[in-house]
Amino acid sequence: MDYTKLRVFFWLTVAGSGASLISLVLPQYQTYSKIALAVFVPVAFILETRTGLLSVLRSGINRYYRSFPVAANHAVFNRIESEYCYLGISFDTIFSQFEDWYRFRRPLNAKARILMLDFAAEGEDTVRFQVEHQFGDGEENEEQIKMARRRIEDRALALMSLPQAHDLIEIRFHREKLWHWAHLIDGKWAWIGLLPKGKPGIEAPVMILKRRRSGEWEMLDLYQEEFEALWDAGRKWKASIPADDNDRH
């Protein structure tokens, strides 16, 4: 029997014992104790049969969406207080939402770490893997691969062209084959997009994780640790954007 079931049976026993004691000591409250017990027993039974749902809540899963429209990313950025971390492929889909947040709604000194697929990777060719995972095998993928490489590099350039980007935005590139993308917010929230084979990332189901208890390892920590490991191993962005470029925006 797991911990959640033990708690349900414990409180059921406490309630039953309490109701019996009240009935013996205070007969005038016998009717009320019976009503309370009659209500508590079915509630406890429902909880016992739904311990899986309680376990999900304890794991930190806050919500699950079968799809996550691009516009919903505004809610992600509105949660940021000090640090935003991204793990994904090109950052292309959400760039406009990020730019809007960065220019107009970013808290003072809030920073961003962006970890994208390495567009220059040749040996493992993870770009090819991601294209084929999304579109399937096919000769037309060669053009898709070239476009994906350009898109990643263009987004990195656009990010570093934002005001104060050299102080507030850091970009690195990973060479991992991804089956998900992640937004990580202040170590408290995570949006995890599960990438289905043969579908674009914007159609990904999304799982939202929320830290429940400080100091306890939760599912959110799995994705935070994954991000940090890939970040430490990632290639740093070395493109030189003249400092004056930032001053023009």
- Gross geometry: elongated
Oligomer: single chain
CATH topology of the largest domain: Endonuclease, Chain A
Structural class: alpha+beta
> What does the largest sheet look like?
8 strands, mixed
Query: Number of helix segments?
Result: 10
CATH superfamily of the largest domain: Endonuclease Chain A
Report what the structure shows.
Helix 1 (3-25) packs antiparallel against helix 2 and helix 6 (126-135) crosses helix 7. The protein has 249 residues and is an alpha+beta fold. Helix content is 49%, strand content 17%. Helix 5 (95-105) links the parallel strand 2 and strand 3. It has an 8-stranded mixed beta sheet, with helices on both faces. It contains 10 helices and 8 strands. Residues 240-249 have low confidence and may be disordered.
Condensed summary:
The protein is α+β, with helices and mostly antiparallel strands and 249 residues long.
List keywords for this structure.
249 residues, alpha+beta, Endonuclease, Chain A, 17% strand
How are the elements arranged and paired?
Elements: H1 3-25, H2 30-49, H3 51-59, E1 61-65, H4 73-78, E2 83-87, H5 95-105, E3 111-117, H6 126-135, H7 141-160, H8 165-168, E4 169-174, E5 180-185, E6 189-194, E7 206-210, H9 219-233, E8 235-236, H10 243-247
Parallel strand pairs: 2-3, 3-4
Antiparallel strand pairs: 1-7, 2-5, 4-8, 5-6, 6-7
Helix pairs in contact: 1-2, 6-7
